[in-house]
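User: Could you write out the 3D structure of this protein bound to glyoxylic acid? I've included everything you need below.
Assistant: Certainly. Input first, then the structure.
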Amino acid sequence: MLEESVRRAIRVDKDRLMRRLDALAECGARDDGGCNRLAFTDADKQGRDRVIGWMRELGLTVEIDAIGNAVAIRAGATDGPPVMCGSHIDTVRTGGRYDGNLGVLAGLEVVETLNDAGLTTRRPLAVAFFSNEEGARAAPDMMGSLVYVGGLALTQALDAVAIDGARVGDELERIGYRGEASVPGPVPHAFVELHIEQGPILEAEGIQLGAVTGVQGISWTEVTVSGQANHAGTTPMSYRHDAGYAAAETTSFVRRLTREMGGAQVGTVGAINLDPNLVNVVARKAVFTVDLRNTDEALLKKAEARLHEHLDAIAEAEGVTISTRTLARFEPVSFDRRIIELVADTARSLGRTVKELPAGAGHDAQMLARVCPSGMVFTPSAKGISHNPREHTDPEDLEAGANTLLQVLLALTESDEIPTRQASP
Ligand code: GLV
Ligand code: MN
Ligand code: MN
């Protein structure tokens, strides 16, 4: 057991963390400073190779599983399930350099800090990155962590088809990351993910860290509208079966729906493809996505029902046929109260202000929460901008987040039980 005074005094090295963040951002770098590292692409492979190289340099034992998740273990004084941290290193096409990457590289920074101090934790420590958290190239999001916890069959994940027509399993083989370790993976003692908030709340309220209470429910639907291609000049308006119109009208509807429902309801039409997509042809076909999220499951179901009523009505009015396919559906998740309080108390003990708040984005921790006590630490995001190359968090905030992660992980590795508020270190 680490002596408490020694344990409490340990701090990460901010510059070393920043150097790794910068080096990982070189993989799939965009001209505008952001990252394009869509899952299972060459850039993803490059990022994976780099992070796994660091894991090995730090003396960790790395296992890659059948969906490409990487789990790196630092041995403890005792055997048994590790305390795990981590996140993802894939990005959206217009990604920044912190979303996901911070949680993985802060985990490596924790390991290097312990290595430098010559400290062995009581329980083993694990740093993981999970495949395809974004789900932007192939749904669902959180694919790797969902498979890891047994929430999605491996074959179903491998057979998922990407937006470019590639099969996930083929791409995984191609980049050399179809690993040997079996899924579902071993259950950790606890899981903690450090992540940028990706929203505006902490910055707006002048608060330095977030203790995340849970993750809102997520509903992704792909909508296919089949209409009739026709001449844009000669077809009277009353003769049209316009798939493009149905897509546009549904996009407006989603915004109206969020206004009418208010509260936590958000809705996005983020991808639209028209066919034949030509200036003088009424669209024959539209394929688009609807992303609905709410912290309240009953309200999320209501939003989904209203979307389907709208689709029925527009199909009838425009004389088109509409079919839908669920790409992802996750109920809201609450994190373990003990971990939420441990995060909040630890942040305060490091002299930081902290607020409990729910996450708006999906996270791997919401999947790990199915199998072990889990929680998250948030750092502020400048202007709340994310999924954008301009995503930014000040290095001092990243450092504070990493030190909180370090101390939370040590509290979990050294105690018999998950600490409760009264007993917390
Ligand atoms: C994925 O992480 C998402 O929140 O869309
Ligand atoms: Mn993320
Ligand atoms: Mn993301």
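The pocket of manganese (II) ion (ligand 2) is lined by residues 88, 99-100, 133, 195, 361 (CB under 6 Å).
User: Perfect, thank you.
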